[in-house]
Amino acid sequence: MIKFLKLYEKFGIFIFIVIGAVALSIASPHFLELNTILNIITQGTYAAIIGFGMTFAITSGGFDLSVEAVMGLTSVFLAILIPVVGIPLAIVISLVIASSVGLINGLIITKLDVNPFITTLAMMTIIRGVSLLVAGGRQIVISEKSFMMIGTGKLLGIPVPIYITMVLFIIFYLILYHTPFGRHVSAVGSNENSSRISGLNVNLVKIAVFILVSFTAGVAGTIRTSQTLIGIPTMAPGFVLDVIAVTILGGTSLSGGRGNLWGTLFAGVFISMIYYGLNLLGVQIFYQMLSVGLVLIFALFVNGIRTKYLEKIKARGIKV
Amino acid sequence: MYDVKAKKVKMKIGQLWENFGLLFLFVVVITIFSILSPTFRTYYNFANNFRFSSLIGIGAIGMTFCIMSGDFDISIGSMLALVAVIGSSLIPKIGGIGGVLSTIVIASFLGFVNGVFIAKLKIPAFITTLGMLFVFRALAFMYTNNAPVYIQDKFWLFMGNGKVYGIPFAAIAMVICYLGAFLLLRKSPFGRYIIAIGTNKRAAMLSGINVDNVKIIIFTLLGFFIGVASVVTSANLGSANPGLMGQGYEFQVITAVVLGGTSLKGGNGSIGGAFIAAMILTYFKNGLGLLQVSSYWQYVAVGLILILAVTLNRMKYTLLGQVEV
Q1: With an 8 Å Cβ cutoff, are A290 and B311 in contact?
Q2: Burial of A8 (0-12, 13-18, 19+ CB in 10 A)
Q3: Do A129 and B248 touch (CB under 8 A)?
Q4: Where are the domains of chain B?
Q5: What is the CATH number of domain B4-319?
Q6: Residue A287: its chain B contacts at CB < 8 A?
Q7: Confidence at residue B1, expressed as pLDDT on a 0 to 100 scale
Q8: A4 against A77, higher pLDDT
C-alpha cells in the first residue's frame, strides 16, 4: 500500500491522462489527430507555466493568489510599451515589472511577517486596481502583428508556447532538483525553523520563490497577450484556480517540502483535456469553472486520505 | 537587558490601542469625510450606511470565529450568491418565510460541507474554500442559467428594507446576531474551545476538546451567518444575481475581521472590533464613492488597508507582549 501511494504521488496524473485520452478518443473522432493534440497541449501550457512557479511556492510552504492579477499587469504594460520601445525590450521590461510584484509579495511576507495567503489576496486586488488605473480601465489593442509569433507561431510544426514551456521546465527542473537553492526551497517547506537554525537565509529563499512565481505569471501573461494582441487589465479571472489545481493534481504536497514538476507539467495537459471534452459537449463556460473546482477538490480529497493513511502507518512505527 | 518599566509603558500603549484604537479610527474616518463631502454628513446617509454595514457586519461574525480558530473561508462570496438564488427561487413554492428559512438552512449545510472537508480530511481551509469558491459560483450560474432572480415577496424584502419603529430591520438583525455571538464567544464553553483551538490546536486536542467537531460547528455557524447576510443583501438589491452578488465579499469580510483586531495566527479576537471595523469599511467606501474616487483606486485602497491592518495587529500584540519578537 505504501509503495502504491508513493507511486501514485509520482505518477498518479498519468493514470488520469490515460483515462481521459481513452474517453476523449471514443467521444471524438478528431481527438487523435496531431493538430488537436498539439492544440490541447498548447492550451495546457499557460496553467503549467505558472504551475512551475506555484510548485516552488507550495514546496516552500507558501502560496500565491496574485498570479492572475500579475498576468493582467504584464498584458497592460506590454500593450503600452510595445509601440514605444519595441517588442524585445517591452517583453523584458514587462517581465521585470511582473517579477517586482513577487519581490513586493516576498518582502511583505518576510519582513512584515504577514501570512502569504492574506498578502497575496490583498495584492491581487491592489494589482488589479493598478492595472486598471494604468490602462485607464480600457483594453489596449496592440498593432504590431509580429508580436503574435510568440503565442501563435510555429517552429517545425510545433507551436512556440510549447517550446517556451519546455525551456522553462528544464530550467525549473534543474533549479529544483539539481541546485543548492532547490534543496533550500524544499528544506524551508519541510521545516522552516530547523532550516533557519541550520543557517539558511529563509527570508531570502522565500523572496526568491515569490519572484519566480510572479515571473512565470508574467511569461504566461505575455503568451496570452500575444495570442489576442490586446492588453487586458482584467485578464483571466479565476485562473489561479487552474494553476493551483494543476499543482496539487501533479502531486506537489500541500504540507510543503516535496514538489513534483513533472506532475505539474502533465496536469496542465490534463486540465486542458477536460476543457476540450467540455467543448465537445458544447456546455456553457461555467461548467468549466465547476469541473476545475471539482477536480481540485477531488485531488485534495485523495491527498487528504493519503496523508491520513500515512499518519496512521507512522503511528504504528513503520518507517515511511 | 530586561527593562520592566519600558515593558509596562509598551503594555499601556498596547492596551489603549486595543480598547480605543478602532473607535478613534472610526471617528477620524467620519470626520474627514464629513468635512470633504456635504452629502456624507446628512442624517439620511448616516442611517443608510448603518443599514449597509450589516452586509459586511453579519458575515464578519462567522469569519471572526473562523479566523480565531486559525482558519479562513474565502468561499463565502460565492456561497452568498448561491444560497440567495436558490432561496429566492423557492419563494413561489413555499412562501417568503419558507424561502428565508431555507436560504439559511442551505447556507448552514454548505458551511457544514466545508467543515467536514477541512476537519475530517485535514485539507487546509484556504485551499478547500478556494475550490468551493468556484464550485458554488458555478452552481449558482447553472441553477439560474445566468439570469437574476427578482424578489417581490414582502417578507423577504422586509429583511433588507423594512423598518421597526423607524429603525432598519437589517440593523436590528445585525445587532441581535452580534449579541448572540458575543455571548457565545465569551460566556459559553464553545467560545473557549474556539480560543483554545486557535491558540494551540494540539494542546486543545490533548485536553479533551473534540477539535474536529468544534471546527465543523464553526464552519456551519459561518454558513448560518452567510445565509442571514445573503437574505439581507438580496433584499436590499431586490434581486439575486448569480454572477455579480458577493464578488469580493470574502475580501471585505476578512478585512473587517482583521481590522477589528482578530489575529491571523488564531486565538486572539474581538467580536465588537469586527462590528466597528465593518462600519469603518462601509463608511469609508461610501465616502470614497461620494467623493467620486475611481473604483480602481478603491481596489488599491482596500487591498492596502488589509495589509496595513494585519501589520498594525501584529504591532499591537507585540506591544501587549503576546507575540515573541
Answers
A1: no
A2: middle
A3: no
A4: 4-319
A5: 1.10.3470
A6: 138, 142
A7: 52
A8: A77
